[in-house]
Design a protein that fits this description.
Layout (H helix, E strand, L loop, with lengths): L5 H21 L4 H6 L1 H29 L7 H10 L5 H19 L6 H26 L3
Length: about 140
């Protein structure tokens, strides 16, 4: 069974921490300011994409190290993290749902409702900060 690539994971966690700091700053404005500033909106959308993708990459590394078959979707990477016992089910459910937002933003399945994206930012940041802490703690276990 392969072992975790802790160097890769540390690098990815550093990126995740940076992106979370950036999106948290952007989320600190009010809705009116957010809706009026297309640069902020586009930055938030791109950061959501990057955060979900980097977390999925981290998940894939854990899944690979567990000896399981590779996950086939962003959503399933989170489900697998719950199944292998790295993340609690409640957090898995919240994070897995963010993959749908990422897909809508990337693929343009529908017109983006900026108010919905904005209202989801604080929970998004909170949940991914929890993810960051849990993955960091897991890697630092003796």
């Amino acid at each position: 069974m392969p072992s975790l690539n802790k160097i890769l994971l540390t690098y990815k966690l550093g990126d995740l921490q940076q992106y979370l700091g950036e999106i948290e700053t952007l989320a600190s404005v009010d809705l009116k300011t957010y809706q009026a500033d297309f640069v902020k909106r586009h930055a938030v959308e791109k950061l959501i994409e990057l955060i979900v993708e980097i977390a999925s990459d981290i998940n894939r590394e854990f899944i690979n190290a567990s000896g399981r078959e590779p996950a086939t979707t962003y959503f399933s990477t989170f489900e697998e993290m719950g199944e292998i016992g790295v993340l609690p089910k409640a957090l898995v459910t919240k994070l897995a749902q963010t993959t749908g937002l990422r897909n809508r933003l990337i693929h343009g399945y529908e017109k983006i409702d900026h108010q919905i994206v904005f209202q989801g930012l604080k929970p998004f940041v909170r949940d991914y900060k929890q993810y960051f802490v849990m993955i960091s703690d897991y890697l630092n276990k003796p």
